[in-house]
Design brief:
By secondary structure, the protein is an all-alpha fold. It has 5 helices and no strands. The protein is globular and about 35 Å long.
Length: about 100
């Protein structure tokens, strides 16, 4: 499901409103899908290849002309960075953003 949501976020064929809603659902899913007992996050249940695809799709959105797409991609990337950077799983994120 999360992969499909990410695809909607990045697909030019979707309306801006569909992309915005997909971004909101993606963000809320990642934020709220943490197992409180174990601390496991839904994000880590997704295989590495798919996580890489999602991150690349969101990074691509940062270069789009539509300001809403850029804003939504930034929000989603921020959520992923908050999960991955402290865990040492996305060391290249901060240099990319500099």
């Amino acid at each position: 499901m999360i992969t499909l949501i990410a695809e909607v976020c990045g697909a030019n064929g979707n309306t801006p409103y569909a992309r915005q809603m997909a971004s909101i659902v993606f963000k809320n899913t990642i934020i709220n899908a943490t197992n409180e007992e174990s601390g496991d996050n839904l994000w880590y249940t997704i295989d590495d290849k798919t996580r890489g695809f999602i991150k690349e799709a969101l990074l691509t959105n940062l270069g789009k002309e539509d300001k809403m797409d850029v804003k939504n991609a930034g929000i989603c990337l921020g959520i992923l960075a908050a999960v991955e950077v402290p865990a040492g799983k996305w060391d290249e994120f901060l240099p990319m953003m500099a």
